[in-house]
Amino acid sequence: MSTLPKVAWIGLGIMGSPMSENLVKAGYDVTGHTLERDKLDRLAAAGGTAASSVAEAVRDADVIVTMVPASPQVEAVAYGPDGILENARRGALLIDMSSITPQTSVDLAAAAKDKGIRVLDAPVSGGEAGAIEAVLSIMAGGDQADFDEAKPLFEALGKTIVRCGPHGSGQTVKAANQLIVAVNIQACAEAVVFLEKSGVDLAAALEVLGGGLAGSTVLARKKDNFLNRDFQPGFRIDLHHKDMGIVTDAARTVGAVLPVGAVVAQLVAGLRAQGDGGLDHSALLRAVERLSGAQV
Fold first, then answer.
1. What are the backbone angles phi and psi of residue 39, rounded to the nearest 5°?
2. By C-alpha distance, which of 5, 31, 9 is closest to 19?
3. Cβ neighbours of residue 276 closer than 8 Å, sequence gap 6 or more
4. Nearest CA to 123 among 81, 84, 193, 181?
5. Distance between CA atoms of 86 and 194, rounded to whole angstroms?
């Protein structure tokens, strides 16, 4: 019998499916729930157990992980008679790895404490590739003791694992991460259009740029997207739009001014309004092409 904690995993999307499967590979007993039958079948095929409801998934779990799109979905699976807080056992550890507002995380931790359930907010960065390869960056908020307990589980999912402070801190750092990523993608997209219109060999240019100070994880991960105009979603524009709303709202609350971030947030919103919300966030290139006169 495994001495590892029993895990309930709620949310088996682009990130949640490979992450939960990596826990199975690491020897964890994982019971998952999501709304899509094919995703449940995928988890079962990987060695996990499919549950028909949130309540069923969490009832016997030591650790509950949520990986859903946004604050409303976290609240939907956490609260109510069929939710996590009403059905998880006292003493369970709830780890929310979704990207949501810091205040939602703070509120969830307070509500869970009344039920005897501990909470960490632990959003991730690294996209689908990072989830598959188990090299995610994990930024956590919550009590040190709970973080220490969760560390072995995190190590099955990522490489850079840091507690950033009390409840909500992980989400604040994730918001900053999404700000940096969006601005970086936008700069790369502008450079691609500039290079192509100048008649430069784009593949050669991106190779040499990646080796200098302009190099970044964003450029390395998204270079082929730019070269091949491949915008199959690893992280959808719709979700980055949500995240830019989180960071601009949180910045306003604390009195931080984000002039470049605000512009990029509007560019993301514009791309979404043009029907590209389901594409990968590297599709910001399409917006720059349109502004530069291309028929996209």
1. -70, -35
2. 9
3. 231, 237, 283, 286, 287
4. 181
5. 55
Q: What is the pLDDT of residues 11-30, one digit of tens each?
A: 999 999 999 999 999 999 99
What is the Cα–Cα distance from 206 to 186, expressed in whole angstroms?
Answer: 15
CA angle 83/84/87 to nearest 5° reads 90
- In sequence order, what are the beta bridge partners of 137? 125, 160
Give the residue numbers annotated as catalytic, written as ranges.
174
Closest CA to 98 of 5, 184, 13: 13
- Measured between alpha carbons, how far is 187 from 230 in angstroms, rounded to an integer? 18
Evaluate whether 209 touches 219 at the Cβ level (below 8 Å). Answer: yes
The per-residue pLDDT for 1 is 59
* H-run or E-run covering 93: strand 93-96
pLDDT tens profile 149-192: 999 999 999 999 999 999 999 999 999 999 999 999 999 999 99
Candidates 5, 13, 17, 10; CA nearest to 32 is: 10
Element containing residue 95 per DSSP (H, E):
strand 93-96
Beta pairing class for 136-141 and 124-125: antiparallel
Distance CA 81, CA 54 (A): 10
Cα Rg for the chain, rounded, in angstroms? 20
Beta bridge partners of 50: 32
Q: In the 8-state DSSP scheme, what is residue 89?
A: P
- Which long-range contacts link 45-52 to residues 24+ away (Cβ below 8 Å)? 46/20, 46/21, 48/9, 48/20, 48/21, 48/24, 51/8
Which tokens in the block code for residue 149? 């307990």
Q: What is the pTM of this model?
A: 0.92
